Amino acid sequence: MEDEIELKTAPADFRFPTTNQTRHCFTRYIEFHRCTTAKGEESNDCERFAKYYRALCPGEWVDKWNEQRESGTFPGPL
Amino acid sequence: MIVLKWLFLTISPCDAAEPWQLGSQDAATPIMQGIIDLHHDIFFFLILILVFVLWILVRALWHFHYKKNAIPQRIVHGTTIEILRTIFPSIISMFIAIPSFALLYSMDEVVVDPAITIKAIGHQWYRTYEYSDYNSSDEQSLTFDSYMIPEEDLELGQSRLLEVDNRVVVPAKTHLRIIVTSADVPHSWAVPSSGVKCDAVPGRLNQISILVQREGVYYGQCSEICGTNHAFTPIVVEAVPRKDYGSRVSNQLIPQTGEA
Predict the structure, then answer these.
(1) B242: which chain A residues are within 8 Å (Cβ-Cβ)?
(2) What sign has the CA pseudo-torsion B150, B156, B161, B163?
(3) Total tally of structural domains belonging to chain A
(4) Does A45 fall in a domain?
(5) Entry pTM
(6) Motif Cx9C motif: residue span (chain A)?
């Protein structure tokens, strides 16, 4: 990573204008998984959503949700 | 001339608490500069009101001393003065409110998309920072813990209760989004010279947008009681030039991936 790292991250989302971004992180995670369900696991279009939720959500939350998805107990509209 | 500049303009700005400090730390972000300016605006009116009230008080005590003025007057109304003492304070309140609301709403405006997201996660009793903009999978984000350096291990020139082993490295003059949360009990992520204090609530992600305008090292402390070592979980933000940011982050990445 010698050259300039491109500085890009999840953009500000007008659906979540306030300080509390919990729902923003959750929504991006769900959008990614709905995108992969609709377009297939290998689709590159969904990578955008993946970057967004990884930027916003703490790693522990993502791990917990992944486990919940695997065990079928994920509390969200996937 | 240049020597003079060198002597006087390289005095380091106040970015950490100083002993017997009276005023704010030096501003490193537009928000903090706005807060300091608002403070100066309000302080002006404060002095005006203080001098006026003290003058009236001293004058009343002096002229209406019982020895000099034995008979008290019984005045219960005075329409003019009542109108004036209602109008003037409301005008002064308006002069205070205008810059105050302007600052309050501009602090929440996110005009420019942030370039970086950094997650600050509070634990008992240390901080974890995650820089996850560069992952290609769910693992691998740059994550590190930040513990206070205990007093025995401090080197000469370091500040007691303020230094940490791993600082949060950020690029200067770049819009940052900091997401603050906690993994156990409420904490608060505060850096006074950046004008930031944001509660770290478990189960909630609080977002703050800052733009650090100058390079430097900024210190802060946990601002929400979180157990025995609440006083021993400081925060240190190091703003580096944008072009050095990449190499600093990857230097931190290398030892980390060795452990992770």
Answers:
(1) 7
(2) negative
(3) 1
(4) yes
(5) 0.84
(6) 25-35
